[in-house]
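Researcher: Before we compare anything, I want clean individual predictions. No alignment, no superposition, just each chain on its own. First chain goes here; please echo the sequence and then give the structure tokens.
Model: Echoing the first chain and its structure:
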Amino acid sequence: MADTSPKKKVAAKPKKPAAHPKYSEMVGKAIAALKERGGSSRQAILKYIMANFNVRKDAKTVNVHRKLSLRAGVKNKSLKRSKGTGASGSFKIGEVVKPKKKPAANSPFKGYPNSSKRI
């Protein structure tokens, strides 16, 4: 006879927060700190992140996340690619786009002010 009693589920442990900021933030800070005129190379960005942030010392995993954040940054225009294609080449900080204010909608003409006083 097989035991058909339901198995107890083990509660998943909550993930501890990372000891570093998001990779997109780290990439932005690296580009800003490097201050290179033609844009910062991905290798220089990697070196900066490895030296200044508390990330794992395994360059391969950091490299994967950095590559994905570079691509995403170019796609959402927070980063601008100055040389190369994809996640290779040099990158600059993109232009910050401020949301435009909508012009006031034209309201229908409601008459002249104080029009009730006219004779």
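Researcher: Okay. Second chain, same rules.
Model: Second chain and its structure:
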Amino acid sequence: MATELFFFTSIPNLPFPLIKFPKHHQSLPLFSLAPPTISSRFKTVSSSKARPSSSTVVVHAVQEEVVQTPNSDSKVTPASSSKLVLVAGGSGGVGQLVVASLLSRNIKSRLLLRDPEKATTLFGKQDEETLQVCKGDTRNPKDLDPAIFEGVTHVICCTGTTAFPSRRWDGDNTPEKVDWEGVRNLVSALPSSLKRIVLVSSVGVTKFNELPWSIMNLFGVLKYKKMGEDFVQKSGLPFTIISLCIYCIL
């Protein structure tokens, strides 16, 4: 089943500062959003009942469906312990919020980071039963060892870079390498048993040749994100694509 979520949010100036989270996480006041429109190949629904944060919407995509038990009106939601969520890009701006939200929900998580030491700086000391950290770079297929995905039920890809040339492009950290090749490498390494991949993308990817998105796409970021989205959609894996407006301030 495929799902795409489109909504706008305001993100503080990038790059994000490192945020220290306490060992025992509490609910954090995150960003307010306009009511999201959730569209899939089956239906389109507009919700105005709540204004979820970007991290809340991302984490919701990995929540198990409520199960109706046979011959009963009761509903059972599988325990969080049944899930193991791998987050790629968990030290970035959106990724930090996603990981904090997963931890606050007691959902077992595994981070794929270029610099594993950042995990302790950002999220404090965590028990391995709660948070595991693996070193790897999605731009390098050799880093994506099958052992990294052992036991993983869901994957959230929060990797990204700036839309326009900046210091964050140093070390070949360009949109082509991150948003296209990195996503392609990650998806290609995922096991077929995966329950869902959630890709955090951007609005405007289907209109990158039209104003105002063509301005945002001057250096190809939306084009490469579209290529990444297309690869996810053709992968055969259950997926959710979340389109955030995160480049408007760059």
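Researcher: What stands out in the second chain?
Model: Residues 227 and 233 are 10 Å apart (CA to CA). Additionally, Residues 7-51, 64-72, 74-79 have pLDDT under 50 and may be disordered.
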